[in-house]
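Follow-up to my post from last week.
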Amino acid sequence: MKFHILTLNRRAPRLGVLKDVEDRPNVQIETPVALLHTQGGHIPHVTHEVFKLVSNEPQILQISLVSMHCFQETMEYYHGGISEFIGSKDSLTCLTLHDPSNITKQGHHVKDKIPIWTKHGKVLYNSEMYMNIVEHFKPDMYYLLSDGDTNKTSPQKRISKAVENTISFSKQCLERHKKSQLLKNKFVMAPIAGGYCVKARDKCIEALLKEGDVFSGFLIDGLHNNGPEVEFLPFAEVKGVVNYVVKKLPDEKLISVQGCWNPLNVIKLVQLGIDVFDTSYCRILTERSSALTFNIEENEDEENYEINLRDSKFSEDFNPIFDVCKCLACTKYSKAYIHHLLTVQELLAPVLIMIHNIHHYLRFFKKIRECIGNNTLERLEEQISNQYKKHHDKILNKNEDEYRNGFSSGNESEELL
Amino acid sequence: MPNIIKPLVFNVIAECKTSKARASKMILPHGPVDTPVFMPVGTQGTLKGMLPEKLNEMGLQIMLANTYHLGTKPGPEILKKAGGLHKFMNWDRNLLTDSGGFQMVSLLKLAEINEQGVKFQSLNKEKGEVMLTPEHSIEIQNAIGADIIMQLDDVIKTTSPDKSRIEESVYRTTRWLDRCIEAHSNPDTQNIFPIVQGTLYEDLRIISAHDLTKRNLNGFAIGGLSGGESKDDFWKIVHLCTDLLPKNKPRYLMGVGFATDLVVCSALGVDMFDCVFPTRTARFGCALTMTGQLNLKKTKYAKDFKPIDKDCWCSTCKNYTRAYLSGIVTDLPIASTLLTEHNVAFQMRLMQKIRDSICEGKFPEFVQAFMLGVHPDKCYPTWIIDSLMAVNITLL
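User reply:
Got it. Predicted complex:
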């Protein structure tokens, strides 16, 4: 797989395409793109068969090691790749370490190892174990092992350690990569660690660039510890460091960030030159029973940025979530029905909400690409910004905690089991 | 009366020459139903995470919904405003609703039955005691708008020793049927089915069936079974009831859904079945196959790269291995949906085999092969041997 920049503007905001995929000459994926966030190989609540009713376009599934660790041994014996194993062999896959929709526990570092937090507790991975997984999974793209355990408040010592670890993991992984026949044509993404310290970022970038032209792209890691908090991360906090790192990296390479970024911050990150995101934001919304209703096209005039379908005001609202939306949930089901499913804790509720949220979020990315193409991204930013700010103010007034508590009730469907 | 639209047409298309099994086509307001049929249970207006689009694609023709649950939430008012349950849940094929009575007796310890109806403690705290009368049950079922609705019956545990109470329930069920018919406001679009009662007493079953069949309705149910009685008692009552009920109308055996029971009771002449078992067991990680069930929680499947059942056409079997399902089964809600899909497909496939073999005149051979598959050691339970013997099928 290769990345090509399509716009004259080789740096931010830019359009690109991923193509020349091994065995799949016809597949093209345009950037900026949102990888489909998965858990255990599935978009939460949506089976691959149902997803076909949402989109027929080629997609890249973001496979997190933490949610697939249980298959570590199984995959040693399985002949195919991960996409086939999880039942979606037409999809491309991108292997990453953590699940961006869940908070990654901080600390617990052990020399030469990275802790991941699976459903059965802590598991330590070193470069060798990680690369074994990569070889068994055979993803189309993957990130090298990294130490991303930093955030705005990390002390210098932690930051230095994170950079040191990431450099050493990357070198070890790369050594394996170069030797591996299986991985020869895979798209390798190098992690840039270093928290909010530009010196540390510099050090990491310098060390990795010394490895020569082996990386197809980069991940700006260590901006946060994942989970729903990322939604509320002020852009001003991340802007400086992201901008710095992007400018330091070779401009022909793909650049990605991970996490539940809200749409406004997505646009701002695109403007800095980020090409790859993921749909973990859709999961955190779905878990709090919220559906995205921000306007994407100029002729759309929904008042709310998002709506919470648990709200009893929807109990007799037989309209769809979003009037003009063409997704399966909006064309066939009403807010009243989804509200009913939520009140009786039925599994179909998050299925329908997720179908809409993913559809909406992918439509948003399509719009971003369109706006880059015709130079109207700022207008889109302004439009979404107005709606988002109004929404955000409302939450702040309401007490942010109460709002986020919606998240805890999201596991009800699992309790039903 | 001229121009009455008949909301149920039942045509027997093939009869087994050995047993009482028959294959039929039933036409309901929302399309055809091929019988013998198994109806999965979508209690609250949804089938356990499955999209109706998917069920449609699978060829499901009818599913159940529960009046007690839907009457509580979202309630008849919202259902009426939505234009009925079909529209509300986006399901344009057939629906059947129960009367709500069974749920009250089974779910609510405080239920008390008198001539007026079933009195129970409302889950809704403010309301206190609530009475579900035959009229009220039909009113809710009219709001739901299912193609087949059930009369409110006086359900007694099959294990109850009190014959006089059982006798009372038989007569009361008939009296309640008349009240249900009287209260029914959509007889042109919704079929009301009476329910034969009488637990394990043959004389009472005869009285019940006799009285109910006098009301000229489009189909009949056999109730009060599958409630803890022995299989030896169970099959004899089914056998008796199918003899008592008219041949030209569908017979619905309530609450039965294990594969073996479906095969035996089809041989005894039952046309319709329902049970929560296949969808419930799916949520516990169990997948059904023609030779028994797989508990996918077991670690032995971790390296098993076969589908649940290589002969199954469902998309779970087409796309996923036992190893994968085993890894997600206790962890992701999606696993419930995938196994539910398989189990519903399994029930449909089994019923298809039953219907096909009846139509091809090979039903007894099918029964023999099926039972041998489940009991390869030929140690058949006696009730299976006896019940099949009663309809002239001998096992291999």
